[in-house]
Amino acid sequence: MNIAIMQPYLLPHLGYFQLMHACDEFLIYDDVAYIPRGYINRNSVLLGGKAHRFTLSVPDASPNRRISELSFAPPPQSLLTTLHHAYAKAPHYAEVMPLLQTILMHEDRRIGALCQFSFETICRYLGLECRFALTSEMDYERSQSAQDRLIELSRQRGGRGYVNSIGGRKLYRGEAFEQAGLRLSFLSSHPRDYRQATPGAREGEFVGSLSIIDVLMWCSPADVVSRLAEYTLLSGDAPWGPAAEGMDQLWQPSLAEPASRPRASSREAAGGVAACH
Fold it and tell me: Around Cβ 59, how many Cβ atoms within 10 Å?
């Protein structure tokens, strides 16, 4: 059984959900320090052909407080209006917008709880099986190192493998996990472009690294699931070459500089850019 452990992020990008595809149980790491100006309470959608940031405010947010001690404020009407303007013409708006409204209006405003509800809701829509739990509700030794906490949580949940995002390769080593009876793997994502326009409309540059909202709006559930499987699990003991180096930026894009790139040529599109409608 594979375990993944990540801080809760608000409607994160596709690569985050690939961890759910790669594991059997996903632990929401909400008993660690809150990270201001990160992805816990913000992300980006496509609006007017460009990445547009949206945010849910977190009252009394501070890096001196644990995520589990904080809650999201109610969503402003302007956020729902922005999502409507951004995706009203998208092919899957009718199915996805009600899901987003249910998520954003969820009664339990605790960061971890609302994110867990969002993950469960989206996975159910996609038909993806994954269990979720909050680490703040678990009994384990919190004073140990970050690596040892991950090892203890994974073993406590009956894991045989631990899957981390590619960025963790600089922090964790396979030897320690192996000694604890765990197989350490790092997820290297292979994202593909998809059509971000209605049929017949002119397309501009592809804008990547957006919230999961974007791919849900433009692609069918079956196509999203196929994209969730497009990754490689690299051994924690494997050597790291230039290709793996480049995946760090794909996993955690800069909020200030959303990834955009020109559309592929028709020949390239036949092999990599898919119309999801």
Answer: 9
Question: Could you tell me what percentage of the chain is helix, strand and coil, using 3-state DSSP and rounding each to the nearest 5?
Answer: 40, 20, 40
C-alpha distances in Å from residue 212, one per residue of 59, 93, 94, 235 = 25, 13, 16, 27
**Which of 46, 98, 106, 102 lies closest to 71, judged by CA?**
106
**For residue 92, what are the domain limits?**
2-272
Over residues 109-114, mean pLDDT: 98
Q: Residue 240: pLDDT band by 50, 70, 90 thresholds?
A: low
Domain count of the chain?
Answer: 1
In a domain, 277, yes or no: no
Q: What is the pLDDT of residue 239?
A: 58
pLDDT of residue 249: 38
Which residues, including other chains, have CB under 8 Å from residue 152's CB and lie 6 or more apart?
140, 141, 144
Q: Which residue, chain included where needed, has tokens 């017949």?
A: 200
Tell the residue number behind the tokens 């644990």, with chain if given: 66
Q: Could you tell me where the beta strands, DSSP code E, fall in 58-200?
A: 131-134, 161-165, 183-189
Residue 181 pLDDT > 80: yes
pTM for the whole structure: 0.88
CB atoms under 10 Å from CB of 43, counted, come to 23
